[in-house]
Every structure is written in structure tokens, then in C-alpha cells.
């Protein structure tokens, strides 16, 4: 089940976020990536000021994603899935729910690291296309992706 997160969910979302991003930190050799050093108060403020969806398994939060409209573009961030639930469709369900929740968006933008093959496969499967790459340092190139919803009328 997917629903909007509430400020009281911040601690559990932060726990899932840290667990999910540990593999990213190891992959890039950087234990100080922003999702790992974000504070509880920062997560709570994001939940209060942006759209944050959570995936539930019973009462347990097993994933989350953030979305914020900037003009007509939804900026997607911090898609996280608990390590024991990765590969089970939670990330796909969260992104699809975000796409539906922000249906007025003309585009959805996100980014990930170039070595994050699982993330890149997921995003491409959901219609995201690479728009650019930016080399940050020797071990990280950021890949920017965009999804533009099909707004053509259905065939007659």
C-alpha cells in the first residue's frame, strides 16, 4: 500500500533511507553522500513541505520517494527501498504512484550515479531517458534522466 507520508514517519523513513543508501556509499567509496548525512529534522521538514510517498507492508515503511513541482516539472528524489524488499516491485510502485499523484507535471526529472545499474534499469523501464551526464570527480558521474508522460489522445 502506498500513501502520503506524515511528519511522524520521518524517523522510519530516515532509517530506510540510510539502509538503502549504504550500498550506494560503498559503490562510490563515499560514506558522506547526502542521503546518509541528512538529519531527522531535515527529513521531517521535507515531508512537511513536499510530496513524500511511503510504501507500507502492514505498518512497516519499506520504501519512500519524494516529489516536488518546479514549474511544470516534478523533481523526483530519494527513491528508497528497504534492502530486504529490493527487487520486489516496491520502487516501481512508488514511482508509478508519484507519476499519478503529480499527473499535471509535464516532465519528471531525477538523477543517479553512473555505477547504479539497478537504478538505471528501473528508471529506463519506467520511461525515463538520459538527458545528460556530469562528472563530479574521479569516482562519480551523475546521470540525469527525464520522463515525459504520453499525453496523446487514445486511438479511436
TrEMBL record:
Organism placement in taxonomy: Bacteria, Bacillati, Actinomycetota, Actinomycetes, Streptosporangiales
Start and end residues of each N-acetyltransferase domain: 1-150
Organism for this UniProt entry: Nonomuraea composti
UniProt keyword annotation of Transferase present: yes
Stretch forming the signal peptide: none
This protein's name: GNAT family N-acetyltransferase
Keyword match Membrane: no
Entry keyword set: Acyltransferase, Transferase
TM ranges: none
Amino acid at each position: 500500500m502506498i500513501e502520503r507520508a506524515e511528519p511522524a514517519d520521518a524517523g522510519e523513513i530516515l532509517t530506510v533511507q540510510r539502509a538503502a543508501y549504504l550500498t550506494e556509499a560503498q559503490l562510490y567509496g563515499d560514506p558522506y553522500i547526502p542521503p546518509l548525512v541528512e538529519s531527522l529534522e531535515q527529513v521531517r521538514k521535507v515531508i512537511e513541505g513536499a510530496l513524500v510517498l511511503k510504501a507500507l507492508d502492514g505498518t512497516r515503511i519499506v520504501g519512500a520517494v519524494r516529489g516536488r513541482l518546479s514549474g511544470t516539472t516534478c523533481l523526483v528524489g530519494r527513491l528508497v527501498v528497504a534492502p530486504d524488499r529490493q527487487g520486489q516491485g516496491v520502487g516501481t510502485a512508488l514511482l508509478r504512484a508519484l507519476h499519478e499523484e503529480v499527473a499535471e507535471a509535464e516532465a519528471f526529472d531525477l538523477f543517479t550515479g553512473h555505477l547504479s545499474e539497478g537504478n538505471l534499469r528501473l528508471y529506463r523501464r519506467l520511461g525515463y531517458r538520459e538527458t545528460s551526464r556530469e562528472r563530479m570527480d574521479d569516482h562519480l558521474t551523475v546521470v540525469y534522466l527525464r520522463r515525459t508522460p504520453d499525453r496523446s489522445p487514445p486511438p479511436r
